[in-house]
Amino acid sequence: MAxxxxxxxxxxxxxxxxATPLILCxxxxxFSERAGIIDISLEGKMxxxxxxxxxxxxxxxxxxxxxxxxxLTSLALSLLHGFACITHKGNQVISGLAINILxxxxxxxxxIAIFARGGQTPxxxxxxxxxxxxxxxxxxxGAHIPFIGPIYKEIISGHNILVWLAFAAVAITYYVVFKxxxxxxxxxxxxxxxxxxxAGISVxxxxxxxxxxxxxxxxxxxxxxxxxxxxxxIREMTAGKGYIALAAMIxxxxxxxxxxxxxxxxGFLDALAARLQGVxxxxxxxxxxxxILALPYxxxxxxxxxxxxxxxxxxxxxxxxxxER
Amino acid sequence: MTEARWARLIDIVILPLVNLLAAFxxxxxxxxxxxxxxxxxxxxxxxxAFYYKGALGYTLFYTTNFIFTGLAVAxxxxxxxxxxxxxxQAAMGGLAIGLVALLLDTSLPAYLVxxxxxxxxxxxxGIWGAIPGYLQAKRGSHIxxxxxxxxFIAASIMVWLLAGMLIAPGQMSPETRSFADDVxxxxxxxxxxxxxxxxxxxxxxxxxVVALLCCAGVWVLIWRTRLGYAIxxxxxxxxxxxxxxxxxxxxxxxxxxxxxxxxxxxxxNEILGVQHRVILNFTAGYGFTGIAVALMGRNxxxxxxxxxxxxxxxxxxxxxxxxxxxxxxREMVVMIQGLIILFSGALAYMFNxxxxxxxxxxxxxxxxxxxxxxxxxx
Lengths: 325, 378
Known about the structure:
The complex is a heterodimer of chains A (325) and B (378).
Chain A: H1 2-34, H2 42-60, H3 63-87, H4 92-115, H5 138-144, H6 148-156, H7 161-179, H8 181-191, H9 193-198, H10 203-229, H11 241-251, H12 256-276, E1 280-281, E2 285-286, H13 289-304
Antiparallel strand pairs in A: 1-2
Helix pairs in contact in A: 1-6, 1-7, 1-10, 1-11, 1-12, 2-3, 2-4, 2-10, 2-11, 3-4, 3-10, 5-6, 7-8, 7-10, 11-12, 11-13, 12-13
Chain B: H1 3-34, H2 38-51, H3 55-78, H4 86-104, H5 110-139, H6 143-163, H7 188-194, H8 207-224, H9 226-236, H10 238-243, H11 248-275, H12 286-296, H13 301-324, H14 331-346, H15 352-363, H16 369-377
Helix pairs in contact in B: 1-14, 1-16, 2-3, 2-13, 3-8, 3-11, 3-12, 3-13, 4-5, 4-6, 4-11, 4-12, 5-6, 5-11, 8-9, 8-11, 8-13, 9-11, 12-13, 12-14, 13-14, 15-16
């Protein structure tokens, strides 16, 4: 029983680690899409940021420098997205797709040119990545207090700072989007941009700010992948996480709290699939992990089709704003 | 030439070329930043795509993939639907070919198996497109999101089946057994040999002919049939389509079925043409490239053939980079592709005002700017 409990706790612990980049990207998506800009480029921005973080950390030895450059890289791609879809009123999906494909090619190209390791960056040492933070007495409490102890030791303690930051980002996103006047304008610009325009506020400027906030969060997610969760950049290391985050955001109906829960659920499925790999369960037999991994996508399709509640996107999403003359 | 024709020329020929040039200039700058000579790289790629023995065959082989996926995206675009599910639809097409071949290749004559497999590829791809179409038309889901999700679901299904039920007995890698010998589409070089021509060996096969037939078919469908008219009407305005007596929901589902079917046919080239078994990830991003192809080809079959040829040359020429350079590889092509989608898709009209000004000045040195501009907007 105690063993099963520990297995469960370790799965929850893995869930938090897997869910962190999803949470950051889902919050990024909320900022962008609430302002009316579809962002399927979460994937590409995260990939470029992961590459930037690992490269800079490898060269300078500092994960913080890596994080800084990762954020700048992601912000630059956000500006490109904004330039295409806000300034030039281009198609937001096409722009996002272009960024994803560009990132996929550019990371490998630059990786080979700089490090000559087939697209990977050098393996990062202990001081070159974000280490796990042990909370006080974690080992003692974990060993001496039954049931609750392992929760403290495995789930609460032992995470790196970016995991905490991801959870903080949810609270901050909620506060900014729903409790400030900036957030009110942000939501208005995604629902009824004419109203914002007639109030004398620039729609373009609001949308650019939203897109940049998204870039900031995606940059942190990228740095997490390559310098906290992993120890270096690997080709295509985002592996669809940007799209899962997008699905989680839709699943959470464009709200931070529910999106967080969706990220945790999708993360849990991922962690569970990793644990169940090749394991034969009593009565059920061997479960196909491939199908567990497909569940987030299937659930999102089912939700979007209105079979479980409704998911209504912001009204002006995907529509470039043209001032009436 | 009248002003309206000049305007059309700018829109259809000059603007796409300028956008393409912009993508190449940025690529060149990146190559130079890496420390290689961009003109040398371009030379290597052109040679690799057209000059060496068999190079053209390989280029046309890749072109075939892009024609299928490009047509798929274009057909959907005509109804204002954005099908980015080409990857998943092509994978399902491959699955259909595999199922047909594995079940029937010992009991039916090979040509029949091949014909059924082609129909199956269209059908499975079509179903994988029609479901998102149905969800958009009847349940209000956004087709972009649904088709993205369907790509991932298809990928999971493929891993699940190829690593499980369909895996070749006694094999470790996730792929099916090879099909019976004649269950394949003939290579062009063997056909040429039959007629007494000697051309270099390449994977180019009859799928290329099927692709060209599909181009003709799509042209007829879109511009010469009632259904095509309904598709364009739906794309123009759903209300107008209803007024014209069409049912947009039905048209959306049918359009997505045709679009998905065309993407599914891409599997002919890879599976029936070359592999003769189903492998994982044979779609290799061709579904996404189809978007770039459709954008560059302006959703017209003729444009799509040219754009496919360009991307075919980029893929084949890009492979040559690996041999010539230490620092740049074929992944460079993925980057160039991203830039092409950016400039000819998202930033398609960035250069338009400038071009209009230039041409207005060239045409009528006095006061032509306004009139040419009017012609383009109209």
